[in-house]
Structures are given as structure tokens and as C-alpha cells.
TrEMBL record:
Top-level division of the source organism's lineage: Bacteria
CDD domains: PolyPPase_VTC_like
Gene3D superfamilies according to UniProt: VTC, catalytic tunnel domain
VTC domain boundaries: 3-219
Biological process per Gene Ontology, one example term: polyphosphate biosynthetic process
Organism whose genome encodes this protein: Acutalibacter muris
Residues forming coiled coils: none
SUPFAM superfamilies for the chain: CYTH-like phosphatases (SSF55154)
Record protein name field: Molecular chaperone
């Protein structure tokens, strides 16, 4: 399992405009993007007492989150992801989930399915049974992704972040969502063993420091 460095910065809509111009002059657009961007829809799981949220707020050094995710409006491919963080380094596991099982997971159901599927899905089943993990919040946003081969660098600009409190609408791309009250945007920088100085300089914004912004935590403001 490979762990990477990750830096997150809460930025303003004006910063997005400035960064877009600077990054596009040096970095390539991720080939998966359409016209330079795509929409990300995620459904996060949490325990009844909000363990994932509490660990994020308290800065626990070893933590994990489970989520379902699809891109743009294409619900034909739904991914189950486990995001892990250990002492500031991040890693992610993912597997595709058959649509029938994705629909059941959205409803918080898991008992009816076989136990011979992908290991990651089985792990989620187990934690739904033993820890009470259930769907908690929908997070939807627009992402502009940039890549730079040296250092395997990926820089993303995330904005138009919206929360959905009805988890049952997750697989409806037009489901009701609510924008964050402060219209926050997020700059994320990920790299392997080193971050090239040219990229480090490009992402510098006066008055903005590396933080621990979580779109999931921010969207929990609505419940």
C-alpha cells in the first residue's frame, strides 16, 4: 500500500481564478477531465456517535473514512473507497461496487449480500455490522485536476462544494444539495517523495497556510 504526502488549503473563489491561470501554464490537465473539470459525488459513512467526524476534528494521527463515489452524472460506475491517514501521509483503496449493492448500501443495508466479494467491500460489511457504520452525508463538488510527472504531483481545485442531507438521493445526480455557507474552495496538493520547487512556488498564496480542511466535516454543518 503506497502512502503519499497531502496538503490541503482552504482558499477563496478569487484564489481559484489565480491558481487556474498559474497551474495551467506549467501543469497538464488530467486526461479524465471534461473541459478541464468534472463533478465528484461522494457518500460518506460514519458511526452513530460520529467517530470519523470526531477523529478529524481532534486531529487523530491514524484514521480512516469509507465513502461511495461516482463522477459527473455516471452512476453506472460506483466506487467504494477507504481513505486512510497515518502521521500526515495518506493512502486510498478502492473497488467497483455492483449497482444493486450500491443501492443497498445507500439504504444502509448489507446483510443480504454474499461474503465472497472484494475484500474492501467485505471490510465495510463487517464494520457496518460491528461499528454501526451507516451513510451519513452526501458531498458534491466541482474539481479541476492538474498533473505534473516529476514527483507524481497532482493538484486539484475543488469548489461549488455542496452538502446533501438525504443520503437516499445519492445516486440521483440532480438530488437536492445545499452550498456551504462560506462558499469555501479547497486547494489540494499530493505528491510522492518530493514536491518540485516549481510546483511549490505555484501553489503559494499569501496568508493561506496548510490546514486540515475536510469537505466531509464542512458538510456536516447541516447535520
Amino acid at each position: 500500500m503506497d502512502f503519499r504526502h497531502e496538503g490541503k488549503h482552504e482558499i477563496s473563489p478569487g484564489d481559484v481564478l489565480a491558481l487556474r491561470a498559474r497551474l495551467s501554464a506549467v501543469m497538464a490537465i488530467d486526461p479524465h477531465a471534461r473541459d478541464g473539470r468534472y463533478t465528484v459525488s461522494s457518500l460518506y459513512f460514519d458511526t452513530p456517535d460520529g467517530r470519523a467526524l470526531r477523529e478529524k476534528i481532534n486531529g487523530v494521527s491514524r484514521r480512516e473514512k469509507f465513502r461511495l463515489r461516482y463522477y459527473n452524472s455516471d452512476t453506472s460506475l460506483v466506487l467504494l473507497e477507504k481513505k486512510m491517514k497515518i502521521d500526515g501521509l495518506c493512502s486510498k483503496l478502492q473497488t467497483a461496487v455492483p449497482r444493486e449493492e450500491a443501492m443497498a448500501l445507500v439504504r444502509g443495508e448489507y446483510q443480504a449480500f454474499s461474503r465472497d466479494g472484494p475484500p474492501l467491500l467485505q471490510e465495510l460489511y463487517g464494520k457496518m455490522a460491528t461499528q454501526g457504520l451507516r451513510p451519513r452525508t452526501v458531498v458534491r463538488y466541482t474539481r479541476e485536476p492538474f498533473i505534473y510527472t516529476p514527483g507524481n504531483v497532482r493538484v486539484t481545485l475543488d469548489y461549488n462544494i455542496r452538502a446533501g442531507t438525504d443520503c437516499g438521493e445519492f445516486l440521483d445526480p440532480d438530488g437536492c444539495t445545499i452550498p456551504l455557507p462560506n462558499n469555501a474552495a479547497v486547494l489540494e496538493v499530493k505528491w510522492d517523495s518530493f514536491l518540485p520547487s516549481v510546483i511549490r512556488d505555484l501553489v503559494q498564496i499569501p496568508g493561506v497556510h496548510t490546514g486540515a480542511f475536510s469537505k466531509y466535516a464542512a458538510c456536516r454543518v447541516y447535520g
